[in-house]
Amino acid sequence: MSLEDGDPARWRGQQVNGEVSGTPWLAGTRDPLPQGTPAPDSSRTEVMAEDWEPEPVLGDSDMIPRDASQQARQDLGQHEEALMGELTELVQKVVKSSSWWERHGVDISILACSFLLLPAGFLCLRSAQTIPFLAGVLTLGVVHHTLTVKGSHLASHNALTESKSWGKVWAIFFIELCSAFTAEQATYNHVKIHHGYTNVIGLGDSSTWKLPFLNRYVYMFIAPLAVPIITPLVALDLLRNVEWKAALRTLCCMFLGLYCHYWLLLHVSGFQSPWSALLCMLLTRSLLAHPYIHVNIFQHIGLPMFAADRKPKRIHLMSLGVLNLPRNALLDWSFGHSLISCHVEHHLFPSLSDNMCLKIKPIISQYLKQKKLPYNEDTYTSRLRLFLQRYEELMVHAPPITELVGIQ
Known about the structure:
InterPro entries: FA_desaturase_dom, Fatty_acid_desaturase. The protein is mainly alpha-helical and 408 residues long.
């Protein structure tokens, strides 16, 4: 709804930037960067797809005299790069020893099972009895979020297949057809901006998710219900930034996905009026919108934020600015491990599938703790309480820039 990550929809009210997950995407959407702002190379590597270090947006270190402090920063940077290289070797060994089933098959099977549940969900809605009808709503709601959040997020990172061509096909299918969003903008803003500049002020700082004109209770508990409506509207606005062929394709896919859902409710589920069918669409598409929005703010906002020219290297940036939530059966299935309990692992190695993120989790956590680096974890309830208590500070006011003595 990348998903992490992959969002989702940009909510109007301020200039936004930052995080996709697409349907409303985990990673959110944003306006195009000012001309001259660098975006990481779009090429994909093996395990470390997107494991690059973006160039600073501001400042020019070459203009600074080579004094002792600069030499110390360079030495520290080399040490951080060595840490990331060592960790990458550990992860690559696990990936190389893993089967195709572990790398891709498990997550593909979850998405396939979701498709197979669609007929049961639509048929349950035909019932005049309460329990079967609610079972249909629950089934379609979970299936929708599995396809639009988990599917879109994995597709945006090309984590469903080794083929770039098939990766493009899956991205269009999950992001545009299922999620009613634009694949190019979703992928760029989530993969290139949010992952490239995680928790960097003005770029990947997750301010996409902030609506300062709403009070805490409206934002946390009422506004998420509008996500299914806002998502395609934001997508239409973003089509101005893509080529006309891509825009035409996106419009066709969005219309086809929404109309198929509507048609099936009328002709398979037996809804008698267009309004009842549209209301059911809204209900199923917003069923997990609350945890979707919550997850996107819980895992980054409130953690250290950095200036573009004074951010730490990748391993520190991700260990400081990303948080894992506990495992949850419903959210693990619908959103994927990389957006819930393995978000730190996902930000360090974003091209890995959900199942592989879960497999390398013990290695990542042990390594970071051994090297005295942060490994942020908290419960869903604890983060919800924190955001309700400190909503003005975290979601209304501009976040302070973190100064890390000895790191920056």
